[in-house]
TrEMBL record:
Gene3D superfamilies registered for this protein in UniProt: Medium-chain alcohol dehydrogenases, catalytic domain, NAD(P)-binding Rossmann-like Domain
Protein's recorded name: Alcohol dehydrogenase
Lineage start: Eukaryota, Viridiplantae, Streptophyta, Embryophyta, Tracheophyta
Assigned keywords, A-Z: Metal-binding, NAD, Oxidoreductase, Zinc
Cofactor: Zn(2+)
Domain Alcohol dehydrogenase-like N-terminal: from-to ranges: 36-165
Length: 402
C-alpha cells in the first residue's frame, strides 16, 4: 500500500509551543517527507506526560522554541523513507522518545536500552541524519522534541524510535504505553525487581508512579507505600494496589526516616517518579541498609541469607531532573550497601520489547483504562496542561481530528 501523499510535503495542524509557558498555538505546518531511515506517521491519539510540561515551562531545562512537543502517542505509518524495511504504510505504531538501532553495543547488550545512536536527547530539535527539522511554517523551521513531536497530525520519526504493534490494539488506550506506563512498569519489573512478599515505596503517584505500583503488585509485593505531596492522589492510588500512604508534609522529619520507622529499617525497593531532587534523595535513603548496631536486622539478614549480613535495598530513579540538579547523599549510605539505579523507559528496548507490553494489555494482564482520567479534542490541548499542572489528571488523551 502506497499512500498518495508519499514523497510530498503534507500540510496539517500542529500545536506549536512558541514561548516558554505560553499556550500552544494550533496552526498549519508543513511536514517534509521522511528521509533515509525515517518514517512519517499519522498520529491518531497522543497524551501528555510531565516531561512535555517541563520542556514547555523550560524553567530547569534548556529553552528550545518554537517547538512541537509530545512524545506519548499512537498512530499509523503514512510513508517510509529510503532503506526502511521493517515498517510499511498502514502499520500501527507507537513512537518512542528513545530508540533502538539494533546495531550498537547497548542494543546488543541484554542489560541496556541506552542505544548509542538514538538514546534520549532533550536538547536536540532536529533529525539525526542531516541536522534539519522536518517541520516548517512559511519556510521557517520548527524544532522537534525528543525525536517524536506527536502534537501534530503528522510527524517524522527515526525508524529506530518506532515500535510496530498489534493492529488490533486500540490506539486510544495503548498510546499511553509509548512513554509513562511502560516506564513505570519497567522501572519496577525490570530494574527494581522486587521479590514476592517484599516492601516497595513509590515516590510520586502520577501515571508513572502508579504504573510502578502496578509493577510491584504484579511482582507480588506485600507492602506498597505511596508517597506524594498531593493527598488527593491517595484515593486514586488504591485502585493500583498501593497499601499505605505517606505525605511528607505530615512529618517534621525527613520522610525517609518516617518510612524506615514504618518498615523496621527501610523498604526493600523504592521507585522515584517525581522529578524532585529531594524526593530522589529520600527515595534512595529510605531503602534498607545493613545496620550493625541493631540486632534485629542481623537476625533478619542471617535468616534470609544464612550468611554475612549485607544490605539489600535498591532505589530506582525515574523522574526527569532539572539540568543543573546534583544528587547529594553521604557516601556512608552507599557503603552500608544500598544500591542506587536509574532508568529511561523502564529498561525496555522500544522496538524489541514494547510490542509485548502491548500484548500484556491485550491479554488483560495490564489494565490501562484506569490511568486515563481525561480526554480532550486536539483543539483543546492546552486543557491537558491545565489538568496536569493542577494535579487533577493521570493521563489526558488528546484526540486528533478524524
Ligand atoms: P505527574 O505530575 O502526573 O506525577 C508526579 C507526582 O509526583 C505528582 O502526583 C506530584 O504531586 C508528586 N510529587 C512531586 N514532588 C514530590 C515530592 N517532593 N515528594 C512526593 N511527591 C512529589 O507526572 P508523571 O507524568 O507521572 O511523571 C513523573 C516523572 O517521571 C516526571 O519527572 C517525568 O518527567 C518522569 N518521566 C521519566 C521517564 C523516564 O524514562 N525516566 C519517562 C516518563 C516520565
Ligand atoms: Zn514521558
Amino acid at each position: 500500500m502506497v499512500s498518495n501523499t508519499a514523497g510530498k510535503v503534507i500540510r496539517c495542524k500542529a500545536a506549536v509551543a512558541w514561548e516558554a509557558g505560553k499556550p500552544l498555538v494550533i496552526q498549519e505546518v508543513e511536514v517534509a517527507p521522511p528521509q533515509a531511515d525515517e518514517v512519517r506517521i499519522k498520529i491518531l491519539f497522543t497524551s501528555l506526560c510531565h516531561t512535555d510540561v517541563y520542556f514547555w515551562e523550560a524553567k530547569g531545562q534548556t529553552p528550545v522554541f518554537p517547538r512541537i512537543l509530545g512524545h506519548e502517542a499512537g498512530g499509523i505509518v503514512e510513508s517510509v523513507g529510503e532503506g526502511v524495511t521493517d515498517l510499511k504504510p498502514g502499520d500501527h505504531v507507537l513512537p518512542v522518545f528513545t530508540g533502538e538501532c539494533k546495531e550498537c553495543q547497548h542494543c546488543k547488550s541484554e542489560e541496556s536500552n541506552m542505544c548509542d545512536l538514538l538514546r534520549i536527547n532533550t536538547d536536540r530539535g532536529v533529525m539525526i541524519s542531516d541536522g534539519k527539522s522536518r517541520f516548517s511554517i512559511n519556510g521557517k523551521p520548527i524544532y522537534h522534541f525528543v525525536g517524536t513531536s506527536t502534537f501534530s497530525e503528522y510527524t517524522v520519526v527515526h525508524v529506530g524510535c518506532v515500535a510496530k504493534i498489534n493492529p488490533a490494539a486500540p490506539l486510544d488506550k495503548v498510546c499511553v504505553l509509548s512513554c509513562g506506563i511502560s516506564t513505570g512498569l519497567g522501572a519496577t519489573l525490570n530494574v527494581a525487581k522486587p521479590t514476592k512478599g517484599s516492601s516497595v515505596a513509590i515516590f510520586g503517584l502520577g501515571a508513572v508512579g502508579l504504573a510502578a505500583a502496578e509493577g510491584a503488585r504484579l511482582a507480588g509485593a506485600s507492602r506498597i507505600i505511596g508517597v506524594d505531596l498531593n493527598s488527593k492522589r491517595f484515593t486514586e492510588a488504591k485502585k493500583f494496589g498501593v497499601t499505605e500512604f505517606v505525605n511528607p508534609k505530615d512529618y517534621d522529619k525527613p520522610v525517609q526516616e518516617a518510612i524506615a520507622e514504618m518498615t523496621n529499617g527501610g523498604v526493600d525497593r523504592s521507585v522515584e517518579c517525581t522529578g524532585s531532587l529531594s524526593a530522589m534523595i529520600s527515595a534512595f535513603e529510605c531503602v534498607h541498609d545493613v545496620n550493625f548496631l541493631n540486632p534485629t536486622y542481623h537476625r533478619t539478614l542471617l535468616l534470609r541469607r544464612g550468611l554475612l549480613p549485607v544490605g539489600w535495598g535498591v532505589a530506582v530513579l525515574v523522574g526527569v531532573p532539572n539540568k543543573d540538579d546534583a544528587f547529594k547523599t553521604h557516601p556512608i549510605n552507599l557503603l552500608n550497601e544500598r544500591t542506587l539505579k536509574g532508568t529511561f523507559f523502564g529498561n525496555y528496548k522500544p522496538r524489541s520489547d514494547l510490542p509485548s507490553v502491548v500484548e500484556m494489555y491485550m491479554n488483560k494482564e495490564l489494565e490501562l483504562e484506569k490511568f486515563i482520567t481525561h480526554e480532550v479534542p486536539f483543539s483543546e490541548i492546552n486543557k491537558a496542561f491545565e489538568y496536569m499542572l493542577k494535579g487533577e489528571s493521570l493521563r489526558c488523551i488528546i484526540r486528533m481530528p478524524a
